[in-house]
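#struct-help
A.M.: can someone run this one for me? Single chain, 160 residues.
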Amino acid sequence: MKKISFACLSLLIFTACKNESEKTVNAAVAVQKDSIPSKAAATENAYASQTKEIPVLKECTEKQIEYETQQECVFKNISIEQVYKRTIKDKEIEKAELLLTDLPEESITKEINKDGLISISYTITPKKTDIEFQFEGGVTTLSLEQLDKDVKRIIIHSAD
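D.P.: on it. Structure tokens below:
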């Protein structure tokens, strides 16, 4: 028992020392970054501001009910199409890369039959779009609803 305690304590001390050395290395790198001439820093900041995306204001809540997880987000001052594309880009839903690049204008079903995904069904109405992923082990639903200038997005993961 003493040997096990000694071994655990030794490992703990060793890893603590290792973490401290990593912190000092990171601090040294940070010091070197701060010592860059101001012209280069100004150029870097100008480039960063050009490639930076406009942040999207959203409020999200998450619920879990038995075999179902639901995430509801409200995006401010945005369209359904923009939220759809952002959801694909940010991969906020499993198999998002298999979604159509643009929302279809009418309801369709896309057969996939690959990696456990059977099909993706799009149900399109003027103010609401429902996209249902049929997996072998359950269903994932992406619902987008236009609320005046805002969009409510609901992602529901349901097991069989």
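A.M.: thanks! The mean pLDDT is 77.
D.P.: also worth noting: The chain has three helices and seven strands.
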